[in-house]
Amino acid sequence: MLLLSILPIGLFAAGLFYLHWRAQEHERERSQVQLVRLLAATVDNALDSTVERLSILASLWGSSPVPDEDFYARAKEALRNNADWSELRPLRTDDGTPGVGTQVASPVDVWRPVITDRRPLISKVLPDPETGTPSVYVGVPVVRDGRVTHVLIAKLDLRWYDRLLTRQGVPKGGVAGLFDQDFKFVARSAEGSARRGSSPSEALVGDMRQKREGIGRYTNLNGIAVYTAWTFTRHGWGVGIATPAAPIEDPFWKHLVVFACLWAGAVVLAILYAFSKARLITASLESLEGQARHLAAGHRIADLPASRVTEIDRAVGALEDASVLLQSATRERDRLLHSEREARSAAETANRAKDEFLAMLGHELRNPLAAISNAVPVLSAEHRTREQLDFVAGVISRQTRHLAHLIDDLLNVGRAIAGKITLARVPLDLGGCVRGVCTTLQATGRFADRQLDLDLEPVWISGDATRIEQIATNLLVNAATYSSAGGRIRVRVSAEGDVAMLGVSDDGRGIAGEHLSHVFDVFFQADSPETRATGGLGIGLTMVQRLARLHDAEVTAQSAGLGRGASFIVRFPRIPEPAPIHPSHVVESSPEARAILVVEDNADARESLQIALELHGHRILSAADGPAALDLVRTHHPSVALLDIGLPGMDGYELARRLRALFGSQILLIALTGYGLETDARKAREAGFDQHLTKPVDMDKLAQVMEAAGRSPIPSAPTATS
Description:
Strand order of the largest sheet: 8-7-11-10-9
Shape: globular
Structural class: alpha+beta
Number of domains: 5
Helix content: 40-55%
CATH class of the largest domain: Alpha Beta
Largest sheet: 5 strands, antiparallel
CATH superfamily of the largest domain: Histidine kinase-like ATPase, C-terminal domain
CATH topology of the largest domain: Heat Shock Protein 90
Number of helices: 17
Number of strands: 23
Low-confidence stretches: 100-105, 315-320, 528-535, 584-590, 711-722
Distance between the termini: 88 Å
Strand content: 15-25%
């Protein structure tokens, strides 16, 4: 019996010991991955800073009237203020020769993307042409009179990056490494000069090719077992941190051996103790047998000696303990039943909220559809007037935008709940951002017959401008929706210590006390769909909460009750005001007529888009599938192609790849599809599309996309359709 208890307990304790060690390992791995992410962000910031500073010098060079030699001599003086640069070199783009008398870092073909695309380029590890040492270069275009005349190249001081890795809090005994796109060492916190240009272990390189981020156990170049965590920067460089495995694993095995020895000793002692107790139990059983025979002989049973079998004396106490445990188990069962009833009630409430949301969604979708349907007979009537045509055109335009807005709201809240929204944070003036939203909403008439009081201080935060405007818009629209004509809406932006506060309050309908804790829940509506007097899906406050959390902000709702108004306060982490940035001037060009290929299998959508584009002066070629489209482009050579993705037979991705193979960059490819997720946009880019637009497309936005592409239009030719 002792063995049956000690053995499972020992195994259970060993399991707990292992699980505890695994939990510590998981926490260590998580911390190591977090550290490598921070290190990747630091490297990105350093590279972004280099590109920005180099671009400023290139811009000044392109606009400077002084000779190139004089300007370059001045620019080289800037090296004293750029500790992460070791050299500054120009490259002439007309003949590929070095500019201003210096040898360039690499052949002109390396910098071809800088010349053709006019974008900065960060090179891989390349041998320096003068010293042969592994080096990394950053090049930006120098534009003069609309033409790239030079490539301004900065050679990075990789020893500075060695020191950068050393300063990032690498664990004791650990090594941080930075790799280029070919997995060659760019910098290293230890032995940086010796390892530069070489590759890490093949096993690590193989895993890094398969996954963008991870952690594993490897053998490093010195033959030492290490745990290495890696990730990639936005510029395509890999960042890894390796910590020795021995200090991590040796304590586990040492403690495990000690535990095993102690457990084995306990088992041996238990066996010896069991044998000694067995002798006493055997003697008691023999005495009981004798007393039983004594009873069979008709004699009275004498009392058994209590000291011989202690277990019998403890049986009654064990039953009492069992009764206590039974009562405890009964109470636990009742508690679980109560929890189950509460969970079921919550699930039923959520299910009712979902049903109400779906009913309300059907109502919201039918309203614009009904307006559009009512406009169709007016369009086909014989005696319609110009005013009636203008009116129904406005109805169709407004209701189409409303439908697109409803779909965008659904997709946005879905992405927010799933955690798939990525922020592009920049320093923002919260007061100015909110003022712009108020101005836009006032221009659209959302605050008609309502008094808007603004108290907006300039307070700076780190945020995504689009998402901050979405937060402010949803709060202001909510206030306008639930306040009546003549009501007052107060908007305040102020600083409170380290917090930037955005407050929106109204004196409208208010919120009942029992609903106050649920106003941010998805699917929750205080009013039933039949009694709601306002439109919309009612998911705006859910989006406010989700977007606020992504900005490390907190949103709270307050109301004194029904009919007493409501207020919403969002508290953002505040940052210091950044230095002013002077924007560059952009000269806009007028739109030009183009030859455009439209590929769409839906006849109504294809013909209506063709008519809309022809009204803008474009020459349109249309096709319903991929093979017909290929026949058209071989004959007419359009400059723009609008492709649907869900085509029969050959889909839009395959058609885009074939068009790109035929014409290269001479044709602008635009995906026009109902699939609007980030994964869909990424697949479109991989297939060769230049832009990804969702249906229904805004014609002004489409015109901006074509104009921004800067492609020359094809000369006019007879229109062909199929």
